[in-house]
From TrEMBL:
Signal peptide: none annotated. PANTHER family: 2-HACID_DH_C DOMAIN-CONTAINING PROTEIN (PTHR43333), D-ISOMER SPECIFIC 2-HYDROXYACID DEHYDROGENASE NAD-BINDING DOMAIN-CONTAINING PROTEIN (PTHR43333:SF1). GO terms for molecular function: NAD binding; oxidoreductase activity. Residues 107-278 form the D-isomer specific 2-hydroxyacid dehydrogenase NAD-binding domain. It holds the Pfam family 2-Hacid_dh_C. InterPro entries: D-isomer_DH_NAD-bd, NAD(P)-bd_dom_sf. CDD domains: GDH_like_2. This is Glyoxylate/hydroxypyruvate reductase A.
Length: 313
């Protein structure tokens, strides 16, 4: 069995040696330009077109990440890059859920306890206790009810915040009020004091967090974008912040990365920024997941994480 690997920034030796250890009878190699040798499986992030083009005998392609938009974006430009019969798999969790929980909890509790406002007071040498918020009035809305959305809801449940989620199709989460479809989105938004975005990246979700959506949130609501920069219309957020419609935002993903040093987000006092690291791929857990999936495929089974290319997740 042959596996080819490509990632633009990961240390390849970690993955090559790790996959050989997990699948000792397998030949694992780093793909390099000109390599058209045999391959049963491919492990990729932002794969070059020539890596996959013509490899119609691949048994499966594994995206090294929670999202697969890098592969799907390439397929839009080069539809023949990956034959339609070749299954595409994404990582289901591999430690990302816990990281997302930590990130969401930090910002939600910070906004609830008004810590960003106190930080601004500190910079002004201003001592003034602010009115405490009530848990029952600080509702959290999660867009996206997949593995990560469910995980974030689970970590917030013990704090007594009213929880709600919105997804494309009906989903049931314990202790969470569920909404689904376009018809129920306004009702979901109108009751969400904090909006956490964990939607998949699809053509239908591009630009979904726009001024019209923000105006459906309660006045002074907060936005936490943990999914993709393409979901957010950045100029609309800046305008809503300046008009006081949105009380603050925490952003881990952006339309263009790295974020330009001239971007107004850097200077805006109500915007928190991190460099797309809310949840990073943990190689050991990811390799365990992929190796297990390959063994299932070799045994004729279908592992979890298969992507519907039409839906985008």
């Amino acid at each position: 069995m042959d596996i080819i690997y490509y990632h633009p920034s990961f240390n390849p030796e970690v993955w090559l040696s790790g996959m050989r250890k997990r699948l000792p009878s397998t030949h694992v190699r780093l793909w390099q330009p000109g390599d058209d040798g045999p391959a049963d499986y491919a492990l990729v992030r932002q794969p070059p077109v020539e890596m996959l083009q013509g490899r119609n005998d691949l048994k499966a392609l594994f995206a090294i990440g929670a999202g697969v938009d890098d592969v799907l974006d390439q397929l839009k430009l080069h539809p023949d890059m990956l034959a339609p019969q070749i299954p595409l798999f994404r990582l289901k969790d591999t430690g990302m859920a816990l990281q997302m929980q930590e990130y969401a909890l930090y910002h939600v509790l910070g906004w609830f306890r008004r810590f960003p406002e106190y930080q601004q007071q500190k910079q002004q040498h201003y001592w003034h206790p602010l009115k405490p918020r009530r848990h029952s009035e600080f509702s959290i809305g999660i867009m996206g009810a997949g593995v990560l959305g469910k995980s974030v809801a689970e970590c917030l449940r013990p704090f007594g915040f009213p929880l709600r989620c919105w997804s494309r199709t009906a989903k049931q989460l314990d202790g969470v009020t569920s909404f689904y479809g376009d018809d129920q989105r306004q009702a979901f938004l109108s009751g969400s004091q904090v909006l956490i975005n964990l939607l998949p990246s699809t053509p239908q979700t591009v630009g979904i967090i726009n001024r019209a959506l923000m105006r459906q949130l309660p006045h002074g609501a907060f936005i936490l974008n943990l999914a993709r920069g393409a979901h957010l219309i950045e100029g609309d957020l800046l305008a809503a912040l300046d008009d006081g419609e949105i009380g603050g935002a925490a952003l881990d993903v952006f339309a263009t990365e790295p974020l330009s040093t001239e971007h107004p987000f850097w200077r805006h006092p109500a915007v928190a920024i991190t460099p797309h690291n809310a949840a990073v791929t943990l190689p050991e857990a990811a390799m365990d997941d992929i190796a297990s999936a390959i063994l299932k495929l070799e045994a004729g089974e279908i592992p979890p994480g298969r992507v519907d290319r039409q839906l985008g997740y």
